[in-house]
Design brief:
rod-shaped; single chain
């Protein structure tokens, strides 16, 4: 496997994790709304804390994904520069 493929594969793993966290945040929001309707303030607070932790992790994953995207683009450009002859 070449370096480009490895970077893309790692980025896809990161994207899968990001999508999972987003769905978990959404699920927890729905649960929080349901608990609010039931007036369970303690549980709502616990869920809110969990949501915040996941949002923080999601922010970290987004940053990693952006960095990986930059690395993929940089390597892609570098490989294309090697494969492209400039005619003057």
């Amino acid at each position: 496997m070449n370096e480009f493929q490895a970077l893309v594969e790692e980025q896809m793993k990161t994207m899968d994790h990001l999508l999972y966290l987003q769905s978990e945040v959404e699920r927890c929001h729905e649960l929080q709304n349901e608990l609010s309707r039931l007036r369970s303030r303690t549980a709502v607070s616990d869920i809110h804390s969990e949501i915040q932790k996941m949002k923080d992790e999601l922010d970290e994953i987004v940053a990693v994904f952006e960095q990986q995207t930059n690395e993929v683009v940089k390597l892609f450009r570098k490989q294309n520069m090697k494969n492209t002859k400039i005619i003057v």
